[in-house]
Structure formats: C-alpha cells, structure tokens
Amino acid sequence: MKENSVLEMRNIHKSFPGVRALQGVDFTLCEGEIHALMGENGAGKSTLIKVLTGVYEKDEGEIYLKGLNKPAVIKSPQDAQNLGISTVYQEITLCPNLTVAENMYIGRGKGQITNWNKMNKDADKILQNLGIPARANQQLGSCSIAIQQMVAIARAVDMDCKVLILDEPTSSLDDSEVEKLFGLMNDLKARGVGIIFVTHFLDQVYAVCDKITVLRDGQLVGEYVIEDLPRVQLVAKMLGKELDDMEDIKGEAAVYSGPDADQDLLEAEGLQSDAGIKPFNFHIKKGEVNGFTGLLGSGRSESVRAIFGADHVLKGDVKVEGKTVKIHKPLDAMKAGIAYLPEDRKIDGIVGDLSVRDNIILAAQVLKGFFHPFSKAQANKFAEEYIKLLEIKTASADTPIKSLSGGNQQKCILARWLLTHPKYLILDEPTRGIDIGTKIEIQKLVLKLASEGMSVTFISSETDEMLRTCSRLIVMRDRRVVGELSGDELTQTKVMETIAGGEA
C-alpha cells in the first residue's frame, strides 16, 4: 500500500446473472481525503460500495486497509464495520422512534446493563465535538433529515471508522443543510478520515472533493485530481462521449404544430386541496411543456397533486379538452388521460418486490380493471417494448425492480405511465438522484413527447433543467402562485427575482 493510503481496492470483479457489474476496477482512498465516486446509473458505483461493505462478495480482486498486513476478508457488513468501514445511505437507516443517543449506540453493547446517563453524556460530547445541533435525549424523528444524516455520521465516527462512505447523503437536503454537512465532512477530513462521496450533484463534487474516480459500464475510466478535471470533461468521461451543449436541448427539439396546437388541453380554476396550497388557476396547451418552480416547500408538488387528485381537493373546476371533469381521486384523473410520476419513487412509485414487467403494466392494468388481467404474452410485449424504448438496463423483464439502479427504476415508472398513452403527463422531480446521462435522456424524451402532441408539466429542483425543458414556468412562493414566465423572461435571474419579490 502507498504510505498515505487508507484503502486500496485492486482488480475487483463482480458478476450477476446476465450482467458483468465490475470488471477489474481499482480504487484508492487516502487519509484525510474526500473522494467522489462518479458514474451514470448502472456504472458500478453501488456494486463497488456493496463489495467494500460486505453486502456482496467479490468474484476476484483484493482489498487492502491501512494497518492490515494482508488482504482484508469482508464477507458481511459486520466484517466491514469491524475493519473501520462505515456507510451512511441516502435513505436513513436509523430508528426515528428512538433518541439520538440510542441510535448512536444501538447494537453496540455486549449484553451488559446500559448506563443511560453515561450513554447520553458520551453522545452529547460527540455531538458537541462534531458541531451537530442535536441533543442526546432528543427523539431522532423530531430532527430534520440533515441532522439525522449527521447523527448517522456521528455514530460511524464514534466507531473509529477509517473509511466513511456517504451514499447520496444530500439528495433530500436544502442548501443550508448541505453546507452544514460539508462542514462536518471537512472536520472529519481534518481528523484523517477517508471519505468516499457518492453523488450526482456536480456542484457539490467541485465544492468539497479532492479527487474523483469515474466508472462507466462496470469499468474504471480513471482517477483525477479535482483541479485537473473541468466539469465538461467529467461529464464526457461519465458518458463516454463528448457532451453536446446542453443549452441546445430545447433548441434542437421539434415543436408540436397540429391544428389544435393553440388550444388548452387542461384548464383548472380556483383549485385548492387539503395540502395547504392557496387557490390557483392553471392551464396547459396541447404539446406544451410547462413547469412549477419555487423553493423547497413552495407548493410545487402540492399543486400537481391537486390536479391529479392525489390530495383531497377542497374546491375548484377542471376542464380537459373543454369538458368539465370531476377529479376526486387519481383513478378519475387517469380516466381523463392524466398521468403523474410522483416525487418519491421509493414510496409512491415502485413496488419493490414486483418484477420490472409488473411495475410497467401496473397503471394500464388499473385502468383496465383487475378482473380483466393482461395475458402474460401481452404483459411481456408491453414490457419489452418500453424496456427497449427507454433503454432500461435490466437482466430481464422478470428482474425485481428493487435490484435496478435508481435511474432505471425511474425509467420503469415513466414507462408505466407512457403505456397508458396519456394526454397530459406530470413529471415531479423525474431526474432526482439519477446520473447526468439519464437526465439528458429524460429531458430529450419529454421534448419529443411534446412534439408529438402530449402536454407535459415538468418539475425539478434544478432551475437550469427547467429552463432547458420548459417553455413556460409558473413561479410559486409560500404555497401560492406569484408569477408566470415565458419567452425572454426564462432566465435564472428572472426566476430568482420572481421567487424573491413576485406578487400574485
């Protein structure tokens, strides 16, 4: 091992039935280093992490850790933990009903009677040292997601971890919470902890990381010092091709030009739900892509959920193609030709234990009625068609959807709704937590669907993504509509100004 290395993975191979997930991958992590692991969904990042943490056993290769004079044997997460390797996942794996201290020490006792006083004091000391604004005796569920992430990190640090893996830790955090997390990461870096940072946010990589390792299709593309790798080059290496100017995505797209191009497909007037949004008016033309923008909590998702009937509608009228429709529940919306891809694919989207095929046909089967099931041949035909259309990376249609990468899960949910042939498609954060290549694919698909006459509402936390995709933006603040932008007004500056000072 190199003198300052804390971890070296050499020639790592891992295969699954029909898929070579890792092929001869090398990875080196130094002490006191924040090292980004980058790649598209399906590039092998998660598999490499799972090999390192003992979730999967590698087929070939060796793992070396500082302080060991022979290759490490890691056959379980417990083995990894004992060797000083800790992981904090995107989905919090702690117990919200227990206190902060109980979460920090759970599973670490050796059968002796717990000294609660000492445990709380020790936990408070660690929290204080790491600058985490939480109390030991506080119920974890009362803390923000960011604080819960930090508690998970504190637990890892107290277990004397040498290698800390942060797997998409910022995907549910706002900007101020991300800053707090970065502060904690830099503190740990100063203490000599090696940090592997898995994320899809390029800005965050360049804000906090020292090095980047890029994987593509299960192979190592290279390891780079952050200063030597401009963003455009990073994207090119992740995709395996030079990236076209992303600003041109919209410019390249065809615009719907049917005889009804200027007609409203859907109109909503005075719409209000029990989720707290103020009554709002909304319309979308046939073949138009529009979007709701605003800060976190502004009411973007609540607005589209009201349109779809996912929240209880208190009042308001909705017309589809000029005809009044009553939408009391999602099935009413589906029958009216409305489809909705929800923000949280884990909770509201995928059915983890079902196959890719069963997930894809789910919405179409609901519309048809469960007493009239699709034949296996029909289901297979639909699944294969959309797996091919959306380039979903899966061993087969029978593969459980939970084993797919996040980006491919998202494509399956998109396939589910496209199979219903909707007139109006609502996409709420369709690109969250997925790689830049898949993001661009989804953006281009949205514009293609619109050019064929589908109306699309596209919501994203990334304003530049909205500007590339939408021709009109509805701006929200504090759960009310405060402005509408189109044409030359579609700029970052104008969006920010409207959010900050727009009036309804």
Write the layout of secondary structure elements.
Layout (H helix, E strand, L loop, with lengths): L4 E12 L2 E12 L3 E5 L6 H8 L7 E6 L11 H6 L2 E4 L11 H6 L10 H14 L15 H14 L4 E5 L7 H16 L3 E5 L3 H7 L2 E6 L2 E7 L5 H9 L9 H4 L11 E10 L6 E6 L3 E5 L6 H9 L4 E8 L2 E3 L4 H6 L2 E4 L3 H5 L6 H13 L7 H14 L16 H13 L5 E5 L7 H16 L3 E5 L3 H7 L2 E6 L2 E7 L5 H10 L3
Parallel strand pairs: 3-7, 3-8, 5-6, 6-7, 12-17, 12-18, 15-16, 16-17
Antiparallel strand pairs: 1-2, 1-4, 8-9, 10-11, 10-13, 13-14, 18-19
Helix pairs in contact: 5-6, 13-14, 13-15
Quick structural overview:
This protein is an alpha/beta fold and 504 residues long.
3D structure, described in words:
A six-stranded mixed sheet has the order 5-6-7-3-8-9, with helices on both faces. A six-stranded mixed sheet has the order 15-16-17-12-18-19, sandwiched between helices. Strand 16 (424-428), helix 16 (436-451) and strand 17 (455-459) form a beta-alpha-beta unit. It has helices spanning 45-52, 77-82, 100-105, 116-129, 145-158, 175-190, 202-208, 231-239, 249-252, 300-308, 330-335, 345-349, 356-368, 376-389, 406-418, 436-451, 463-469, 492-501, and strands at 5-16, 19-30, 34-38, 60-65, 85-88, 163-167, 194-198, 211-216, 219-225, 264-273, 280-285, 289-293, 313-320, 323-325, 338-341, 424-428, 455-459, 472-477, 480-486. 35% of the residues lie in helices and 24% in strands. It folds into two domains: 5-239, P-loop containing nucleotide triphosphate hydrolases (Rossmann fold, 3-Layer(aba) Sandwich), CATH 3.40.50; 262-337 and 442-504, Rossmann fold. The protein contains 18 helices and 19 strands. The longest helix has 16 residues, at 175-190. Residues 243-247 have low confidence and may be disordered. The chain is an alpha/beta fold and 504 residues long.
